[in-house]
């Protein structure tokens, strides 16, 4: 499997120091096979890989991951990004009812989706109405009525018994009915054909023109694989759509259709269907789809763990240094940068339980002061940061000049650093942190 192959690539590359072009190429070869195996269309694979290579070449070398892991991480991030990053929400009309039209091939799962969507919308506090515009197959209307009943949502259907009705007329009257009976969302189920054909497209386009939907959702079976691209293009050109719904994700399809449709049409994937029951339905999650397409959830887990272990190891080393009073200004700067990356310090501390009384004190924390501290430490040589005791009077003058502060500010920082180091070592001893044998040097 891909995971096995990638694991062997990871092994081969373990221990190398930087992202070389050969590393990137080797990993991308495996990714390419994975994407093709997941039924992503070839041109989409090519474009995607080229983009990943470009980004990997400019990537900073990670300390936690080996090169192959790092490339996989980039691939995953790009994939999640292409698939939509954060999920887009349904567009609701400013003046209800919101009209949602479903389009797609026969058997794609439109009628089932109509029921799922109705149930879901109800759960969100909406009052949907289903409209049966598939008058092509004799039992299509009945199927929607059954689904509607299960969802607890009314269905608007043409009167039976006077031959084949006009779906455009039914759609129009359905929306009228919704306005009249104060349904705030209308879901229009339409007919499909087994293959793309002009008549079906024309009918869908006529319904579209009659009701001007706020959303037209292209419903596509994830199992159709490579065909997803041509089908999506046909519907884009014939009817146009504003969003995509993937169905039958409970099958063994790896979901390459998701990437293809998204790349080729540029329209977001809004929902995912994964079963025949009404509750087998969810908003689309790009991250889950990405790991399904890559088919290496275990590799991604490994990468996450490696990063966590790295963090933990670094924290442990810092703790040991604190305990033995060996903390350097370099560590101090690193810690400060790490904390600041998480957001303004006041916010961060404010989130701690029991920080209530500290609020006033926290309000005093001055971010600009931290900027100056950072500037001062940056103005020191590596040797000075490593061994702050060597920072004598003339060095303090040089540092002050270099970082645009006064000598007394440098003095202040260095003195407070020594105080803090001593205090932290004492606290570490009390809390039993590693290395706390040798107290405050
Ligand atoms: P339509 O022709 O586009 O309206 O498709 P239908 O809603 O009638 O669905 C066609 C078949 O696919 C039916 O047997 C459904 O039960 C089944 N189906 C629809 N969605 C899913 C799904 O997400 N998973 C599975 N396993 N079957 C589905
Ligand atoms: Mg149907």
From TrEMBL:
SUPFAM superfamilies the UniProt entry points to: P-loop containing nucleoside triphosphate hydrolases, Signal peptide-binding domain
Top-level taxon of origin: Bacteria
Subcellular location(s) per record: Cytoplasm
One Pfam family here: SRP54_N
Entry GO CC: signal recognition particle
MF annotations from Gene Ontology: 7S RNA binding; GTP binding; GTPase activity
Catalysis: reaction(s): GTP + H2O = GDP + phosphate + H(+)
The protein's Enzyme Commission number: 3.6.5.4
Function: Involved in targeting and insertion of nascent membrane proteins into the cytoplasmic membrane. Binds to the hydrophobic signal sequence of the ribosome-nascent chain (RNC) as it emerges from the ribosomes. The SRP-RNC complex is then targeted to the cytoplasmic membrane where it interacts with the SRP receptor FtsY.
Quaternary organization: Part of the signal recognition particle protein translocation system, which is composed of SRP and FtsY.
Family the entry assigns: Belongs to the GTP-binding SRP family. SRP54 subfamily.
Name by which UniProt lists this protein: Signal recognition particle protein
Organism: Streptoalloteichus hindustanus
Gene this chain is encoded by: ffh
């Amino acid at each position: 499997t891909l995971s096995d192959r990638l694991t062997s690539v990871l092994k081969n590359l373990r221990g190398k120091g930087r992202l070389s072009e050969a590393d990137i190429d080797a990993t991308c070869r495996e990714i390419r096979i994975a994407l093709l195996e997941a039924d992503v269309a070839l041109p989409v694979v090519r474009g995607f890989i080229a983009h990943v290579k470009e980004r990997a070449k400019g990537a900073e070398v990670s300390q936690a991951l080996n090169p192959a892991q790092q490339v996989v991480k980039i691939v995953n991030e790009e994939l999640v990004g292409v698939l939509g990053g954060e999920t887009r929400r349904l567009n609701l009309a400013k003046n209800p009812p919101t009209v949602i039209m479903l389009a797609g091939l026969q058997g794609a799962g439109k009628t089932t989706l109509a029921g799922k969507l109705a149930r879901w919308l109800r759960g969100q506090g909406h009052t949907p109405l289903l409209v049966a515009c598939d008058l092509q197959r004799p039992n299509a209307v009945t199927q929607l009525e059954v689904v509607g009943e299960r969802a607890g949502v009314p269905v608007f259907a043409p009167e039976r018994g006077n031959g084949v009705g006009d779906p455009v007329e039914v759609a129009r009257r359905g929306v009228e009915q919704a306005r009249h009976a104060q349904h705030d969302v209308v879901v229009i189920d339409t007919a499909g054909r087994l293959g793309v054909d002009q008549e079906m497209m024309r009918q869908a386009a006529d319904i579209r023109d009659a009701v001007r939907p706020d959303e037209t959702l292209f419903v596509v079976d994830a199992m159709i694989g490579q065909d997803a691209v041509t089908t999506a293009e046909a519907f884009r050109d014939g009817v146009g759509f504003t969003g995509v719904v993937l169905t039958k994700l409970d099958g063994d399809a790896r979901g390459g259709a998701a990437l293809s449709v998204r790349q080729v049409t540029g329209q977001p994937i809004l929902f995912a269907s994964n079963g025949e029951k009404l509750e087998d339905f969810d908003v689309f999650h790009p991250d889950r789809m990405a790991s399904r397409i890559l088919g290496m959830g275990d590799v991604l887990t490994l990468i996450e763990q490696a990063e966590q272990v790295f963090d933990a190891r670094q924290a442990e080393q810092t703790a040991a240094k604190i305990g033995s009073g060996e903390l350097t200004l370099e560590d101090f700067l690193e810690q400060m940068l790490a904390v600041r990356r998480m957001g303004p310090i006041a916010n961060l501390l404010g989130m701690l339980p029991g920080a209530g009384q500290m609020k006033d004190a926290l309000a005093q924390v001055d971010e600009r002061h931290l900027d100056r501290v950072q500037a001062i430490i940056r103005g020191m040589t590596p040797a000075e940061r490593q061994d702050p005791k060597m920072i004598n009077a003339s060095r303090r003058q040089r540092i002050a000049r270099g970082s645009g502060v006064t000598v007394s500010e440098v003095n202040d920082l260095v003195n407070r650093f020594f105080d803090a180091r001593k205090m932290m070592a004492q606290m570490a001893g009390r809390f039993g942190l590693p290395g706390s044998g040798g107290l405050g040097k």
